[in-house]
Amino acid sequence: MTAQPMSPRTTVRRGASHAEYGKSEILAVLRAGQIAHVGVDTDEGPLVLPMAYGVTEDVMYLHGALANSLLKAGGNGVCATVTLLDGLVIAKTSFNNTMNYRSVVVRGTPRMVTDGAERLEALRIITDHIVGNWEHLRPPSDSELRATRIIALPLDEMSAKIRTGPPVNDDVDADAAHWCGEIPLVSAWGSPVTAPDSGATLPSSIAALADRPVNP
Ligand SMILES: Cc1cc2nc3c(=O)[nH]c(=O)nc-3n(C[C@H](O)[C@H](O)[C@H](O)COP(=O)(O)OP(=O)(O)OC[C@H]3O[C@@H](n4cnc5c(N)ncnc54)[C@H](O)[C@@H]3O)c2cc1C
């Protein structure tokens, strides 16, 4: 564990040996992930939705349709969780089975992004985080921008849990004849498939995207 917890409510209690509070270490997990599960309280009860995101050193940007219920309800505070599964950890008992993972929990009250320049920059950051092809795209139109809600969640109250390594078995199982160990999860992008209405042949910049590691 490095650094100090950022707040009492983001202090890891269970499995505290896996806690990580260093901002650069947490940012590394956020930059490696693709999907945040974002939770809010709504008038109809709790709601957690998977969303694309992008990060700066200071904020996590989330975007969606103007009518998106989660983004509208975010004023009451949100919790965004990013999870990277790195492998299965198989112990001698189901009780000790676990996973290797990197996960981050960000809690806070987001602000609505209304400034035109910041909105464009936020969309660039989200697009480049997920795909990395902003500069090769037609810029968003005014109507597309009007239809999009963007919020910025501050990155000043967050925690990470990171587990690596083999299973931990109980002493009572030391001589038990059950296999134990790890199965690493290896993910990869497939080859790009050009759409029938593509207006261009596959550029090398897009082909290169498929060579990027998943969850590096
Ligand atoms: C892929 C995966 C699968 C998991 N499966 C299970 C499961 O099946 N059952 C189970 O009980 N637990 C599971 N966990 C662990 C789970 O995420 C919690 O850490 C654990 O359940 C403790 O919850 P708690 O409320 O007691 O945590 P507490 O330690 O009381 O949480 C306090 C604070 O610690 C931080 N925190 C807690 N968990 C995490 C986390 N995972 N990542 C970053 N920050 C965190 C948050 O800021 C939270 O507000 C899994 C984790 C991952 C990544």
How would you briefly describe this protein structure?
The chain is of the alpha+beta class. It has helices at 23-32, 69-73, 116-130, 142-146, 204-209; strands at 19-20, 35-42, 45-52, 54-55, 59-65, 78-90, 98-108, 111-112, 148-154, 158-163, 181-184. The longest helix is centred in the middle third of the chain and has 15 residues, at 116-130.
Describe it.
The structure is a single chain. The chain is α+β, with helices and mostly antiparallel strands. It contains 5 helices and 11 strands; from the N terminus they run βαββββαβββααβββα. The strands form 2 sheets. Strands 1, 2, 3, 6, 7, 10 and 11 form a 7-stranded antiparallel β-sheet that branches. Bound molecules: flavin-adenine dinucleotide (FAD). The site of flavin-adenine dinucleotide has 17 residues, from strand 6, strand 7 and strand 10. Flavin-adenine dinucleotide (FAD) binds next to strand 6, strand 7 and strand 10.
| Percentage of residues assigned to helices | 10-25%
Please indicate the percent range of residues in DSSP E strands (runs of 2 or more).
25-35%
Overall CATH architecture: Roll
Please give the largest β-sheet. 7 strands, antiparallel
CATH level 1 name: Mainly Beta
Give the bound compounds.
Answer: flavin-adenine dinucleotide
Give the mean pLDDT: 94
Rounded to the nearest angstrom, the distance between the terminal CA atoms is: 21 Å
Structural class: alpha+beta
Count the domains: 1
* Rg result: 20 Å
- Would you give the CATH topology? Pnp Oxidase, Chain A
**Bulk shape:** globular
* CATH homology superfamily name: Electron Transport, Fmn-binding Protein, Chain A
Can you count the helices? 5
